[in-house]
Design brief:
single chain; about 80 residues; mainly beta; 1 helix
Length: about 80
Amino acid sequence: MAFQKGDIVQISSDNECYEKYQGTKLRVTHRATEYMKADKFFANGRPDGYHPGFDSASGGSLYDLETESGETVPFSLYDWELKRG
C-alpha cells in the first residue's frame, strides 16, 4: 500500500516500536522509492523520491512523517509499518 505526500497515517498496531507515536495521526511529508547517499541527498535539498535510508529489498516505499502540529518524527517508516489514519 503506497501512501502519498500529505496522507494521514498511523503506526500499525502490530509495530511495537515507537511507543511515543502509537495512536498519533501523522502526516506523510516525503515518500522515497530510490536510494541516494546521505551527502548527496541533503546537498540536493532532500529530492522527492529519494532517501539515504531506503532499501530496495524492502519491497515498499519509505516515508518521512510529522505530527499534525508539525513536529518532525525522528525516524522513517516503510509501508508495512503504517496504516491509514
